[in-house]
Structures are given as C-alpha cells and as structure tokens.
Amino acid sequence: MGKEQKHASIFELNGVPKLSQALPLALQHVVAMIVGCVTPAIIISGAAGISGPDRVILIQASLVISALSTLLQLFPIGPKTGLHLGSALPVIIGVSFAYVPSMQAIADGYGIGAIFGAQIVGGVVAILVGFCIKKIRRFFPPLIAGTVVFTIGLSLYPTAINYMAGGVGSPEYGSLKNWALALFTLAVVTALNHFATGFLKLASILIGMTAGYIAAAFCGMVNFTSVTEAGMFQLPQMFHFPIQFELSSCIALGLLFAINAVQAIGDFSATTSGGLNREPRTDELQGAILGYGVTNIFGACFGCLPTATYSQNVGIVTTTKVVNRCTLGLSALIILCAGLFPKFSALLTTIPSCVLGGATVSVFASIAMTGMKLVMTEEMNYRNSSIVGLAAALGMGVSQASASLSMFPTWVTTIFGKSPVVIATLVAVFLNITLPKDEPKIRHQEPNDIY
C-alpha cells in the first residue's frame, strides 16, 4: 500500500489542503466577489449602448480574466528571487468600481473602444509604477488614498439612484414599481448586514439581489430571451471590441491606474499583516503591481474592464486566517468555469436595473466610508481637513457642473469635467506637497499640573 498523502492546513500559505475543507471557504470568496465583479460590466454596457450578445461577452470576459488574474497573483510567473509577475499572496482580483465614473464618461463620449485603449495605457503606467514603487509610494499616504476612495464612492451615488429608478432611458424610469423593488432589495441587504451572521451576512448582497430578482420575476420584469439565445460553452474572444487610443481618455485612466497601483499596496499589506502576521516584502509588492499592469493589458484585448484587488476578500482572509493559496485558487477556478458558460453570463444580464441599484447602493456607500476610514487614520487638523475638503469639493463640484468647462477644449472636459476622481487626486496630492505641516504641539507645564 502506498503512503497516505499528507494534506496541508488551510492556514498554511503553501500546499494542497483537503477538498472538503477548501471548497466551503472557496465558495465563501466567490459569493463575496461575484456580484461586484460583473456589476461594472453591466453599468458600462448601459453607458456605451451595448446590449444582447455583446453585453454577455463583456460579462463573460469580466469573470474569466478576473479568475486568470487571481491565479497569476496566487501563483506567480518567474523566479522566486528575481523579477516576477504576481505576488504569491492570498488575494482575489475582480473588476473594479474605482474606474466606473471615468469609464462612464469615456463610454458616453467615445465608446467602449476608447476605454480599452486607455486601459492598455493604464496597464503600462501600472508597470512603470511597479518598477518605481519605492519612490512613488510616498506621494499617496492614507490621507490622499482615502480622499480618492471617498470621492469615488460619492461619485457613484447618482449611478445607483438612476438604477434604482429603473435606469436612464427606461420608459418606466422613476415608476413606483421600480422604487418599490429597489427599496425591497436594499431592505433585505441592510437587514442581513445588521441582523445576520456568518454566511448570511457575507452573502447579503447576493441574497438581497436574489430576493429582488424573484420579486421582479413575479412582476413580469424579467426577460429570459438572452439566456435561451446564449450558447452552452464559449471561450473569450480576443479583440471582439475595437481598441481606440484617445488621448484624454488615456490620461484620465492612466492617472487612475497609477493611484490604484499604489492603493493596492494597502490591500496586500492588510492581507499579509492580518493573515500572515508580517508586512509584504518589496519583491512581493513589485511582483503584485507588475502582474496587475500586465493582466489589465491582457484583459483589455479580451474585453475585460480594469481589475483590482478586492478588499472584501481581504477582509475574509484577515478574519478567518485562511491564507492557503490553493483554497483561493479554487475560488478562481469556480469563477473561471462560470465565465466559460455564456448562459450563466446571460442570466446576469436579465437582472432588472432597479434590483441592481437596490443591491449596489450599499456597496457604493461602503466604498465612500472605506475612504473616510482611511482619511481618519491621520489626525484631522486644519491642514488635513483642508486637503480632504478642497479636493472633494473641487472634484465633485466641477463634475456636477461640467458645463462650467464648456469654453475649454473637449479633452479638458473629458479629463477633468466628467469624473471627479482626477481633479480630487491632483488637488489632494498638490496640497499635501505644498501646504506646511503643523508643528508638533509642545505642552507647557503649569505650576498646578497634577501627575
């Protein structure tokens, strides 16, 4: 008889654990990320006027490329001690909401091809950041990163509200039925977040969306035509969508890629400190960001929107202490399989806009509050308050009144007027560099001080 195979613990970074232990935890990660992974594709397809099979392909690419990007981060390519792609750290990669406001503006002005062209440029920018990570990192302390994330969350609120009302352009936009379903979905999500525990709390958005979807089906708002027309199995198609390099779009997304490349350090630091009780090494961070850049270039060619690390999955790692790479790799394989079956992707396109809005408004609120928590890690003195306040005010203000830039060239409006993130970032970084830092307060001892 052969020697019995010894399985690794799920709390070990390396090794293969028992499938019975790994599968439930892998599914936990899938549940936490799958809604967030496909929602940006649904939103951007609406902004770009994409429907039918093309919409299915956009969602399919989101799942497949996110899975492959996760596998690259878990199991890097290249020598362990030299330059490599990937971090070998326990993280999950998915399509990021951080790019949605800018992508909506680009899709509205130039079409989906300009997004993918700008994404390729952004991937190159991320690679450059990876090579210069030590020098660039100091320009993005928690105060600046938090301000950017906070502004992203705020800028996504109108998107959620428009979806809750039924989607702009819908004949029933703003109807009582749309609002009732949206608020019902939101109520389920909120109740599970605050009163449930364990799996139910973790899957609150998925369960809330499912409840809203069932209610919408009873109201006759679900059309399964796209599901019946979709094929059973299909590989992602390279260059299905055109790639267009438009200068202002490339600048806008390139800046966001630089910010998110640096911001990803926070997620990698959180997962190593929370799950492995150490800080990430420089070579791990460099490999992570290089992999992030390369997979986004690769993803743009296959129709996948920009990806990033998923903080909710980092939270699972730090809470459960399950850091085994094979366990998270199993999550990626499940997502990959889901993406290879177009009927599953087509089913996701049947979710009514009001249900999607009711489920995601809490996600957008969470993004804004995550940014605020980052900001609050630093002392909110007059200097720091000015940086956050002015950056958010100018970013949100100009984007809400983009007509104020009508006398400028079109490219100025595209970069600075359509999304608040670019202005907020530039203002925050500039003020953080130029404004004098407060002198440390010296406490003078009084005669009647009691110690």
Q: Return the string of H and E elements.
A: HHEHHHHHHHHHHEHHHHHHH
**Beta-strand percentage range:** under 5%
- With strands numbered from the N-terminus, the spatial order across the biggest sheet is 1-2
Number of helices: 19
Question: Structural class of the secondary structure composition?
Answer: mainly alpha
The general outline is globular
Low-confidence stretches: 446-451
Largest sheet, in brief, is: 2 strands, antiparallel
Distance between the termini: 74 Å
Q: How confident overall, as mean pLDDT? A: 82
Helix content: 55-70%
Number of strands: 2
What value does the Rg take, in angstroms? 22 Å
List the helices and strands and how they pair.
Elements: H1 19-47, H2 53-74, E1 93-95, H3 100-110, H4 112-131, H5 133-136, H6 142-164, H7 176-195, H8 198-202, H9 204-218, H10 225-229, H11 247-275, H12 282-301, E2 307-309, H13 311-320, H14 325-339, H15 342-349, H16 353-375, H17 382-400, H18 410-417, H19 420-434
Antiparallel strand pairs: 1-2
Helix pairs in contact: 1-2, 1-3, 1-14, 2-12, 2-14, 2-15, 3-4, 4-11, 4-12, 6-16, 6-17, 6-19, 7-9, 7-16, 9-16, 11-12, 11-13, 11-18, 17-19
